[in-house]
Design a protein that fits this description.
Layout lengths: L9 E4 L7 H7 L4 E5 L2 H5 L4 H9 L3 E5 L8 H13 L4 E6 L1 H13 L6 H4 L16 E5 L11 E6 L4 E6 L7 E4 L9 H20 L5 H23 L4 H17 L6 H13 L3 H17 L3 H12 L6 H12 L16 H10 L12 H10 L2
Parallel strand pairs: 1-8, 2-3, 2-4, 4-5, 5-8
Antiparallel strand pairs: 6-7
The protein binds nicotinamide-adenine-dinucleotide and fe (ii) ion (FE2).
C-alpha cells in the first residue's frame, strides 16, 4: 500500500508579517475581501493592521465577526451571507481556530449548499466539497489549532449537536501569515490551553497508526518547541521569541496530524460540544491517560516523547511529564476540577466512540476503553 505525503502551504512568518496580507491577497488576484474574525479579536484591535494593509493594496474590505468559540452552523451561514453581499473574492480569516475554521467554511458555503451532514468527513463527505473554492488566507492569533495550514474545519452541526469535521484538500489556505506580535495579547489561560492543543496534535500524530516519516519528524520537533517555550509564553506573554516558537509548534502540529490523530481528540470533542470546555483544555485534561493507555501498543514512541519532555527515558514518564507541564501552567488537574460530573461520562463515551479520530489511535479503542479513559482523567 502506498502513502500520500503533502506539505504545500505557503507560510509567511515573522514579527509584523501580518502587514503583508495586502500584497499576499493582491498576488492571488483579490479585489474584494471579507475579513472573518470574532468579537474578542476585534476588541483586541488585532484586525486593524490587516484592514490597513488590505486597503493600502487597493482592496475593498468588509468585516464579519459573528463567530462563537466552538463555532456553530449559523456562524458560517452569517459569514456566507456577508461574503455574498460584499461580492467577495477572497476570505482573510484572522483569529484563533474558531474564526479560521469559519473562514474556511464560508469559502465552502460560497460554492455549495449541501447540508453539513453530507459534507461530514467521517461519512465520506470530502468528495462533495467543490474544488474551486474562493481562496482563503489565514492569520492566527492563538498558537494551538494549526487550522492556518490545515485542510479541515470543525463546526457544530445543529441536527446532531456534534462537532463535525469538514475536510478537503481544496480547503487548504493559499497562504498562512504567522505574526508572533498578534499573539502577545492572548491571556495566559488561553495561551496554556491552545499550547496544549499544539502539543496534543504533535503527540497524537507521532503515535498515530500509519507510515509517515516526515510527519513523525515534524511532530517531534514540535514537541521540543512546546517543551522549551510554552511556559515562557504563558508567564511572559510579551516574549516574542517564545510566542514565535509556539506559533511554529502549532503550525507543525497541524502539518503532522495529516498523518492522523487519536483517542485524545475523540475524548476532547464531546467535552466541548456537551460541557463547553475549550478544545485545548479538553485535550490537556485527557492526554496523560491516553498516553498511559497507548504505552502498551507503542512503547518506544511514548518513551521517546517522555524523553523529549523531561529527559527521563522510563515507562510512565511521558504522562507524568505532561501532568507536570499542565500543573506548571496552572490548568485544572482533572475533568472534575473543570466542572465535568461523573454522571456525564457514559453519555460522553458514547459520543467519543462515534468520533472518527480514535480510528487512527495506535491502540484500538472500544466504547468502554473511552469511558475508562474519561474516568482516569477525572
Ligand atoms: N481546523 C482544525 O484543524 C482544528 C484543529 C484544532 C481545533 N480546531 C477548532 O479550533 C477552535 C479553537 O480555537 P482556539 O483554541 O484557537 O480558540 P478560539 O479561536 O475559540 O479563541 C479563544 C478565545 O481567545 C480570544 N483570542 C484569540 N486570540 C487572541 C489574542 N491574540 N488576544 C486576545 N484574545 C484572543 C478569542 O476572541 C476567543 O475569545 C475549536 O472550535 C476547535 O474545534 C480546529
Ligand atoms: Fe486539536
Amino acid at each position: 500500500m502506498s502513502s500520500i505525503w503533502n506539505y504545500p502551504t505557503r507560510v509567511v512568518f515573522g514579527d509584523g508579517a501580518s502587514k503583508s496580507v495586502g500584497e499576499e491577497a493582491k498576488s492571488l488576484g483579490a479585489a474584494r475581501v471579507l475579513v472573518v474574525t470574532d468579537p474578542g479579536v476585534e476588541k483586541a484591535g488585532l484586525h486593524e493592521r490587516v484592514l490597513d494593509s488590505l486597503e493600502s493594496a487597493g482592496i475593498k474590505t468588509a468585516v464579519y465577526t459573528g463567530v462563537d468559540g466552538n463555532p456553530v452552523e449559523s456562524n458560517v451561514t452569517g459569514g456566507a451571507e456577508a461574503f455574498a453581499e460584499h461580492r467577495g473574492d477572497l476570505v482573510v480569516a484572522i483569529g484563533g481556530g474558531s474564526p479560521m475554521d469559519v473562514g474556511k467554511l464560508v469559502a465552502v458555503r460560497a460554492r455549495t449548499d449541501r447540508a453539513w451532514e453530507e459534507l461530514d468527513d467521517a461519512a465520506g463527505g470530502s468528495i462533495h466539497v467543490p474544488a474551486d473554492l474562493p481562496p482563503v488566507i489565514t492569520i492566527p492569533t492563538t498558537a494551538g489549532t494549526g487550522s492556518e495550514v490545515g485542510r479541515a474545519a470543525v463546526v457544530m452541526v445543529e441536527s446532531t449537536g456534534r462537532k463535525t469535521v469538514i475536510f478537503s484538500p481544496a480547503m487548504m489556505p493559499k497562504a498562512a501569515i504567522l505574526d508572533p506580535e498578534l499573539t502577545v495579547s492572548m491571556p495566559p489561560k488561553t495561551t496554556a490551553a491552545t499550547g496544549f492543543d499544539a502539543l496534543t496534535h504533535c503527540a497524537e500524530a507521532y503515535l498515530a497508526v500509519g507510515q509517515h516519516p516526515m510527519a513523525d519528524a515534524i511532530a517531534l520537533a514540535g514537541i521540543d518547541l512546546v517543551n522549551k517555550h510554552l511556559v515562557t509564553a504563558v508567564e511572559a506573554g510579551d516574549d516574542l521569541e517564545a510566542r514565535g516558537a509556539m506559533m511554529q509548534a502549532a503550525m507543525m502540529g497541524a502539518v503532522a496530524f495529516q498523518k492522523g490523530l487519536g483517542a485524545c481528540h475523540s475524548l476532547a470533542h464531546p467535552l466541548s460540544s456537551e460541557c463547553g470546555l475549550h478544545h485545548g483544555l479538553a485535550n490537556a485534561l485527557c492526554l496523560p491517560a491516553v498516553l498511559d493507555f497507548n504505552e502498551a501498543a507503542v512503547v518506544e514512541r511514548v518513551v521517546h516523547i517522555g524523553l523529549l519532555l523531561d529527559g527521563q527515558p522510563d515507562l510512565g514518564e511521558c504522562s507524568k511529564a505532561v501532568r507536570e507541564l499542565r500543573a506548571a501552567l496552572l490548568l485544572p488537574n482533572g475533568l472534575g476540577e473543570a466542572g465535568v460530573k461523573a454522571a456525564q461520562l457514559p453519555a460522553l463515551a458514547d459520543l467519543a466512540f462515534e468520533d472518527a479520530c480514535h480510528r487512527e489511535n495506535p491502540r484500538k479503542c472500544t466504547r468502554d476503553d473511552l469511558l475508562a479513559l474519561y474516568e482516569a482523567s477525572m
